[in-house]
Amino acid sequence: MIKAVLFFLLVMVAIGMVGNALFPGSVGRNLRKKLGMKGPTTCKDCGRYIIGSKGCDCKKGG
Ligand SMILES: [Zn+2]
């Protein structure tokens, strides 16, 4: 079982290294785009973090 875990980790590291060699920095950029490059968006009314694109829950009347 431990050997399987070690093998899995090695495969993951290898994939990461190959990905970095082929597309330097692009993976990180894509992740940042998905997370929002401008930083976390907060609601102007209640100050909570807005998750998604539909806005804060407080504007829905809930
Ligand atoms: Zn709000």
Could you explain the architecture of this structure?
The chain has 62 residues and is mostly helical. It has one domain. It has two helices and no strands. The protein is elongated and about 50 Å long. The structure holds zinc ion.
Amino-to-carboxy terminus distance: 49 Å
Low-confidence stretches: none
What fraction of residues sit in β-strands? under 5%
Give the helix tally.
2
How many strand elements?
Answer: 0
Rg: 19 Å
Major sheet size, sense and barrel closure = none
Bound molecules: zinc ion
* H/E element sequence: HH
- Find the structural class using helix and strand composition: mainly alpha
Number of domains: 1
- Tell me roughly what share of residues is in helical segments: 40-55%
Oligomer: single chain
Mass-distribution shape: elongated
Q: How much is the average pLDDT?
A: 75
